[in-house]
Amino acid sequence: MSLGNIFDISGSGMNAQSIRLNTTASNLANAQSVSSSIDETYRARKPIFQNIHTDILDRSLVPVDLEHDVGKGVKVAAIVEKDTPLEMRYEPSHPFANEEGYVYYPNVNVVEEMADMMSAQRSFTINVEVFNTAKTLMQKTLTLGQ
Q: Which protein family is named in the record (predicted)?
């Protein structure tokens, strides 16, 4: 693994955390959206992260090849909808109430989304710091010969 791989790893981490921040923002924006049917109601979405290179997990008792097995980064494998139940409220005067007087709210937990957003923001910041530290290290290495 070369020092240049650090840029790829931190870049993939920043990209993954950016997608996580966007899904969290989408969830928060739709937290109070209302619908009259279950099928049309917004459902919270979550990104699923995956190690880019998973061969190391599939092998057993085989020595780790640092050049090929470690340090490829992370990617977003999928964005899935949460399967927690939707919130159904009895509000017969609401304009979107169905014939029984119920409206459906998304399964978005605002507190959980805020905590997730803070975690994603912190993870993004750490990846930026790793990137900048590697850049500084490479610059200092280049000036050693002067």
A: Belongs to the flagella basal body rod proteins family.
